[in-house]
Design a protein that fits this description.
Shape of chain B: globular
Distance between the termini of chain A: 24 Å
CATH topology of chain A: MetI-like fold
Helix content of chain A: over 70%
Strand content of chain B: under 5%
Order of helices and strands of chain A: HHHHHHHHHHHHHH
Distance between the termini of chain B: 63 Å
Radius of gyration of chain A: 26 Å
Largest interface: A-B, 105 and 108 residues
CATH superfamily of chain A: MetI-like
Largest sheet of chain B: none
Number of domains of chain A: 1
Number of strands of chain B: 0
CATH architecture of the largest domain in chain B: Orthogonal Bundle
Strand content of chain A: under 5%
CATH superfamily of the largest domain in chain B: MetI-like
Order of helices and strands of chain B: HHHHHHHHHHHHHHHH
Number of domains of chain B: 2
Number of helices of chain A: 14
Number of strands of chain A: 0
CATH architecture of chain A: Orthogonal Bundle
Radius of gyration of chain B: 28 Å
Helix content of chain B: over 70%
CATH class of chain A: Mainly Alpha
Oligomer: heterodimer
Structural class of chain A: mainly alpha
């Protein structure tokens, strides 16, 4: 045993050093090839980030150039004390809470069912993914028409079968749920396709062995499929949470943040304050607080991922 | 010998009996799956079909009978109104220019960087890699205010460059290319070096031709993303002649009021190009989503 492993262990570093020794000094080529990217990256990602952080400590405005007077932490304390800011943060979180479970669970169930089909998988893949490629503006126009009261298709159908239809987008209690429903229709296909890919990697023999042992299809799904999809589920979940936290388009297009600001997400708040009130310093501070929320989700994901890789 | 064969035979019989029972359970379950799928497929198809249906009816008929699917007078009138009366042709052109230029530049700029990170051992490589990985964490949405001030200062508002330039350096695309190049045996580069080939030649002639799946994934996704992008174009393109399709469509419902045929015709025209692209490249796009998970 010891003799067998020794040469292998010794072999790795030797090969690595000779590998890098064979390469030419290529610092100039490397920087040269990365230069266009790095230039754009600095100009349009790093510089705006730095500018945004600095701006959040000044009384900047869109009406005059430059930073304006130094404000210290005032913008942050104002945002943290503002009920408008907190209610918009809550709407973003609420949207994430109501859209994430259906977008993950329904995608999982539909993908598992589609995966069992012998024929016609392409049809469901086509149909469920198709809405994902259409622009948010088209999807919003179509769903506003479906929701239009009292002549929209959904409401009329619900009334026909005797369930009183809500006033969808015009009712503060239903507006967010209505946008959520439209979002499930619009973006479910992405998660569905990720799950279909995850299902491809489960060996078919596992199901055959389980059914020979008398496991029902339902037991197989519960005890084989869902546990083996754990990594895919983790990926789908975190991508979905981050995507939902970025909600802006559908709400801007369908409710305009209304009725009476009942659905305005934090990006809507940033948009309104920055581009209607023109208070860019204050808006930059609010953006940074929102950034921290997304960053927290990304960091949790990173830590979970590292633990999984260590245990694997 | 005889005893063992009978035991084996009995087990086989038991297995067959058992698996027949399971066969029935599996069959019922398959029926259940198909029914659920059909219901959901219907829910997914209805909004698209309803939009097309509405767009083909005369507005007067929609006003009197809003939820009837059949019409005695199907017409393309709404499409003619939208195409002739509105700016939709210009919006198509703007979206197309921006999406093609962004996707093409993203492929070039991100692949050269991915190659440099993966194949050349330049000094400071770790720092560059770290900076790019950190960029994954910054959502462009939180940068709209400083970006807008920056673009205002250098007069890039209401220009194509104002939409193209911020979406070329995409961290995730660099990492996709780097991962792809890592999978290509480095002996290829080394032997080309021995023959005196330059790094750029190795990138262009040897590595890029082997990277077609990554190229198409990055190109398609940048294209789709830019075509559908909304918030940044909404801020940058305020001149109706410069608007992209999604921004233009956001003005449609106020332009047409309750002329639902015209509104739905605009929505259908907005959805159509990418639906066609998706139908043509279905497998590529779906594989791209599955292997890269770009969202």
């Amino acid at each position: 045993m010891a003799i067998q492993t020794l040469p292998l262990e010794a072999g790795v570093p030797v090969r690595a050093t000779s590998g890098s020794g064979r390469r030419r000094p290529d610092t100039r080529a490397g920087w040269g090839m990365a230069a266009p990217f790095l230039l754009l990256y600095v100009l349009f990602l790093i510089a705006p980030t730095a500018y945004g952080i600095i701006m959040s400590f000044f009384n900047s405005s869109l009406v005059h150039n430059g930073l304006g007077g130094f404000a210290g932490p005032d913008n942050y304390t104002e945002a943290l004390k503002s009920s408008d800011f907190w209610s918009s943060m809550w709407h973003t979180v609420l949207f994430t809470i109501i859209t994430t479970p259906p977008l993950v669970v329904v995608a999982l169930v539909l993908a598992m069912f589609t995966d069992r089909l012998k024929r016609g998988r392409w049809f469901y893949r086509l149909l469920f993914f198709a809405p994902y490629v259409i622009p948010s503006a088209s999807a919003a126009l179509i769903w506003s028409w479906l929701y239009a009261a009292p002549i929209g298709l959904w409401g009329t159908w619900l009334n026909d079968i005797g369930i009183g239809a809500p006033n969808w987008l015009a009712d503060p209690n239903w507006a967010m749920a209505s946008v959520g429903l439209m979002t499930v229709w619009w973006t479910l296909g992405f998660n569905f396709v990720l799950y279909l890919a995850g299902l491809q990697e489960i060996p078919r023999e596992l199901y055959e062995a389980a059914s020979v042992d008398g496991a029902s299809p339902w037991t197989q799904l519960r005890h084989i499929t869902i546990p083996l999809l754990r990594r895919t589920t983790a990926l789908v979940l975190v991508l979905q949470i981050i995507a939902s936290l970025k909600i802006f388009d559908q709400i801007y297009l369908m409710t305009g943040g209304g009725p009476n600001f009942a659905t305005r997400p934090v990006l809507g708040f940033i948009y309104d304050i920055g581009f209607t009130d023109l208070r860019t310093g204050y808006t930059a501070a609010a953006s940074m607080l929102y950034f921290l929320l997304i960053l927290a989700v990304s960091l949790v994901w990173f830590l979970i991922n590292r633990r999984q890789q260590r245990s694997a | 010998m005889a005893a063992t064969t009978t035991i084996a035979g009995r087990i086989n019989v038991q297995r067959i009996v058992k698996s027949r029972a399971i066969d029935w359970r599996a069959r019922y379950f398959n029926w259940f799956c198909v029914s659920v799928l059909i219901v959901f497929a219907a829910i997914w198809a209805i909004p698209l079909l309803w939009a097309v249906d509405t767009s083909l009816k005369p507005d007067g008929e929609i006003a009197t009978n809003p939820t009837r699917w059949w019409s005695g007078h199907f017409t393309l009138h709404a499409y003619r109104t939208v195409v002739n009366g509105g700016n939709i042709g210009t919006w198509y052109l703007n979206s197309f220019v921006v999406a093609i230029a962004s996707a093409g530049l993203a492929v070039v700029v991100c692949s050269t960087t991915g190659f440099a990170l993966s194949q050349t051992r330049f000094r400071g490589r770790q720092a560059v890699f770290g900076a790019i990985a950190a960029g994954l964490l910054i959502p462009s949405q939180v940068l709209i205010v400083p970006m807008f001030k920056e673009f205002n200062l250098v007069h890039l508002l209401n220009t194509y460059w104002g939409l193209i330039l911020p979406s070329v350096a995409i961290p995730i695309c660099v990492l996709i290319f780097a991962a792809f190049f890592n999978g290509i045996p480095s002996e290829l580069a080394e032997s080309a070096h021995v023959d005196g080939a330059s790094w750029f030649h190795i990138y262009r002639r040897i590595y890029m031709p082997l990277t077609k799946p990554a190229i198409s994934a990055v190109f398609i996704f940048t294209f789709v993303w830019k075509w559908n992008d909304f918030l940044w174009p909404l801020l940058v393109m305020t001149n109706p002649r410069m608007m992209t399709l999604p921004v233009g469509l956001s003005q449609v419902s106020s332009a047409y009021g309750i002329q639902y045929a015209e509104i739905m015709a605009s929505a259908v025209l907005g959805a159509l190009p990418l639906l066609v692209v998706f139908l043509l490249f279905q497998r590529r796009i779906v594989e791209g989503v599955a292997t890269t998970g770009i969202k």
